[in-house]
Amino acid sequence: MPTRRRRATPAADRPRIEDKLLAAMEKLLAKGGGFSSVSIEQLMAAAGLARATFYLHFRDKGELLTRLMERVRQEIVVSAGLWFQHAELAQREDMRRALVGILGVYRKHHVIIDAVVETASRDAQVARLWRETMDALCAESRSAVLALRQAGRASEAATPLLADLLTWSVNHCALQYGRRLRGAQLEKLADALTHICWNAIVSDVAA
User: Fold this and answer.
1) C-alpha pair distances (Å), 94 with each of 22, 91, 98, 108, 161
2) Sequence-ordered alpha helix ranges (H) in the chain
3) I need a labelling partner for 48 at 20 to 30 A (CA). Which of 41, 74, 166, 202 fits?
4) Close Cβ partners of 67 (under 8 Å, ≥ 6 residues apart)
5) CA dihedral angle for residue 48, residue 54, residue 58, residue 64, rounded to 10 degrees
6) Residues 30 and 110 sit within 8 Å (Cβ to Cβ)
7) What single DSSP character describes residue 173?
8) Residues 185, 85, 106, 193: is their CA dihedral positive or negative?
9) d(CA 24, CA 47)
10) How far from chain centre, in Å, is Cα 158?
11) Residue 126: Cβ-neighbour burial (10 angstroms; 0-12, 13-18, 19+)
């Protein structure tokens, strides 16, 4: 007997929905305006989804934005590769690859990241979301520094505070330059950031 195909549950279907909504949100934001100007109706139409689908997955636009930024943050973490996974094993080129990957995610999602940063100055909820995003990235950097310290490869200056400062510095460079640079210019930015971060964190003896 033929079996009925099981319908995907909202939870199982959510990643696909989020992919479409992230692309749709970035498309709408690229036309100008901020999050407040994008209605749920516009968003779902741009994503090619029914309006009712939105409320199967999200309470409101605030929850949606939180989920979209979480996906961007996860992409940043994954793009960092060995540096965030096993920093104690990382070499200089691993750090460079991590920075190239991070810059690539900022460039890919610059529309939504720029909108979050700009909106944070006047919206407390978005400001909290951006702060939580950066706190999570700083925590990843602190863990990497700790792994290097435990492996005896970190310089004396490699403290949690330094990890935070470098994370914010990379974020600033990615926001200011990353999306505009291509080719050799982007490579030079990655080289400069690698020089700063590697020499600040890794001891001369270990390097």
Assistant:
1) 29, 5, 6, 21, 22
2) 10-29, 40-47, 51-57, 61-79, 82-85, 92-108, 110-120, 124-150, 160-173, 183-201
3) 74
4) 18, 58
5) 30
6) no
7) H
8) negative
9) 5
10) 23
11) buried
| Residue 44 CB contacts under 8 Å (≥ 6 apart), including other chains | 24, 50, 51, 53, 54
- Which structure tokens are listed for 95? 């750090």
Give me Rg for the CA atoms of the chain: 20
List the chain pLDDT tens, one digit each, 207 residues: 444 444 445 566 778 898 899 899 999 988 887 888 889 999 999 999 998 888 888 888 888 888 889 999 999 999 999 999 999 999 999 999 999 999 999 999 999 998 899 889 888 989 999 999 999 999 999 999 999 999 999 999 999 999 999 999 999 999 988 677 788 888 999 999 999 999 999 987 655
- Give the predicted TM-score (pTM) of the model: 0.86
Rounded CA separation 207/153 (Å): 8
**Which DSSP letter does residue 12 get?**
H
